[in-house]
Structures are given as C-alpha cells and as structure tokens.
Amino acid sequence: MPARKVRQILSLLLLHESHYVSIASLTYELWASEPPKSAITTVQTYIVQLRKLLAQVTGTSTATVSKEVLQTSGTSYRLHLPTGSIDLHEYRRLLAAADGAHSCGREHEAVALWQQAERLWSGDALSDIEHGPLLQAEAASLQQSRTSVWDRRIEAQLRLGMHHHILGELAGMVHLRPFDERLHANFMLALYRSGNRGRALQVFQDLRRSMVEELGVEPSPRVQRLLQQILSNDEALELAPCTSLQSA
Fold it and tell me: Do 167 and 156 share a structural domain?
C-alpha cells in the first residue's frame, strides 16, 4: 500500500513540472473525499520515503534531495528537475515547436515534429499508476492531447498530398473511434484521393449505420456534403489544399 501511494505522489509531482502541489491536493488524490484522520501525517511520511528513494537513485543525501530536488514550501511540495529530464518535458517542447512551424506554414516540419512527439508514447498515460481523482483528470488530459496531435498530423498530411501514406493508420483508427465524424471524413477523403471512391462511400455507410443504430442520429450535414462531393466527383476535393470535416 505505501509503495503504491508513493508512486501516486511522485506521478502528481512530476506532472506539475516544478510547480508546488499542496498537501491538501495530495491528500485528495490519495483518498478523495474520505481521508483518514492521519492523512496529513501519512502524506508527510510518504514524502520522507520518496526523498529516501530519490537519494538512492541520485547517489546523494536526503538533505540534498530536500534542498534541491523534492522541496518544501509551507504545506506544499515540488519536484525541481532540469528541463528535458523527463519525456513529458520533451513531449511539450515538441508540441510547441510543431505549433510554431504550423503557424508559419512549415507543414512538413510540423508533421515531423508531431511524429517525434507521438513516438514518445508507449501505451496509455499513467497506465501503471493507480489513479485518484487528480491523476485521473491528468491522464484524461494527456490522452486527449495525444488524440489531438494525431488528428492534426493526419490533416496536415492530407494537405500535403500524403494520403497514400496514412490510409493504414486511418483504417485502424476508425474501428477505435466509430462515432468520430471528423476522422471518418478524413478517411473518406484519403480514400477518394487514392482512387478508391467505392471504399470511401462504404466508410460513410459504416459511420451512418453506427450512428443511427447506437446513437439514433444521422451524420452531420458537413459529412453528408462531403459524401455528395464524392458522389459527384467534385473537383474541389482534388484542388483544395485540405478538405476535412471542418471544411467539407
């Protein structure tokens, strides 16, 4: 039990990237709305254990760790780590660089940076850590970021005419996100541009069937307009730099 909760504390401190986390937040993470009477003392004990572990890993004293690494300010704690020392630092740096490249029109560079960021992932966020309410929210945020990066990279590759390169990824992802209209629209467009209009139409039919049977709604007008463009071999699908759910 202690080791598991120490890992929760370590994870929360790491995710806050050198910002102080209050003991109240740590208590809420570990026990939600039902902390034991000894919660504060117990958290302080876990901090001591964590400092000992960090001292062993870094080959320094616990006093040095307390002063330079796992610091205290009032009733809050923070991990002070060099920039770039964990994958999360690098992930966020790559996203910022990709955003900059994208905003300046350097799409190939943005795609390469997003791909580098994606390669840092090796499974779901915090998959080997028990989640309290705060870590659960952090994990959900990281997973959403991962999905967003993938979507943005795919759409950039569509704009660059790289539809042949992403067909396999899109084919696999539509099964994982059966109601994602934006994803299905991009798959339809990639198939159409690859000369497979029939398969593009089938993707629409699969999406419509899933939405009607499971959600009781039809695909949005934007997806249906894309369907009509495909049926009529609309030249705009070939000429436009990007046609996704947002512009279809």
Answer: no
